């Protein structure tokens, strides 16, 4: 169920939330108090704060695949398999993008990079494990905000595909 009140838009009007609202697709907003002193990763902090299984909360990572930025979306309790991402994106070699490059390309800060509403649309690959859930949670475009939506809707909004890109 979308939260579409003016107060929700005013307080959470990130490009990701704006893109969701504009799409009309069902979604939920999950704001929480980000603790900069937390020893948890951003993703694990989000999972704990919103009370979701870490396997259902996904982090958005950018990698350089053969000179092109590619978005990989994997569960927060797993790692991105760079070789698998390169294969899924039709490339040969992948390396994690520099944080500053990821921020410039997406318009978001590390720890709040959303796959939605990025400045430029990038090839996007969602780990296939997302298909096991009716709803997955991704960053809403800032630290302290996640959004819940159906994996199929996430793929539709990003033009993404699924592949096995996560590893333990």
From TrEMBL:
Q: What is its EC number?
A: 4.2.-.-
> Recorded GO terms, molecular function?
aminoacyl-tRNA deacylase activity; lyase activity
A Gene Ontology biological process in which this protein takes part is: translation
Alphabetically sorted, this entry's keywords are:
Lyase, Protein biosynthesis
Q: Which Pfam families match?
A: tRNA_edit
Q: What class of enzyme is it?
A: lyase
Q: Which domain of life is it from?
A: Bacteria
Identify its protein family.
Belongs to the prolyl-tRNA editing family. YbaK/EbsC subfamily.
Question: What PANTHER family would the database entry show?
Answer: CYS-TRNA(PRO)_CYS-TRNA(CYS) DEACYLASE YBAK (PTHR30411:SF0), CYTOPLASMIC PROTEIN (PTHR30411)
Know the name of this protein?
Cys-tRNA(Pro)/Cys-tRNA(Cys) deacylase
Species annotation: Promicromonospora thailandica
């Amino acid at each position: 169920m979308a939260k579409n009140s003016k107060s929700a838009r005013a307080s959470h009007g990130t490009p990701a939330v704006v893109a969701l609202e504009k799409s009309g697709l069902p979604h939920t907003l999950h704001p929480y108090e980000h603790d900069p002193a937390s020893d948890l990763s951003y993703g694990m902090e989000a999972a704990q704060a919103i009370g979701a299984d870490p396997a259902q909360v996904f982090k958005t990572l950018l990698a350089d695949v053969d000179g092109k930025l590619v978005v990989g979306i994997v569960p927060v309790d797993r790692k991105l398999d760079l070789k698998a991402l390169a294969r899924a994106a039709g490339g040969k070699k992948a390396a994690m993008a520099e944080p500053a490059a990821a921020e410039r390309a997406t318009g978001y800060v590390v720890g709040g990079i959303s796959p939605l509403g990025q400045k430029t649309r990038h090839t996007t690959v969602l780990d296939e494990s997302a298909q096991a859930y009716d709803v997955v949670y991704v960053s809403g475009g800032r630290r302290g905000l996640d959004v819940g939506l159906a994996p199929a809707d996430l793929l539709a909004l990003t033009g993404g595909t699924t592949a096995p890109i996560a590893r333990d």
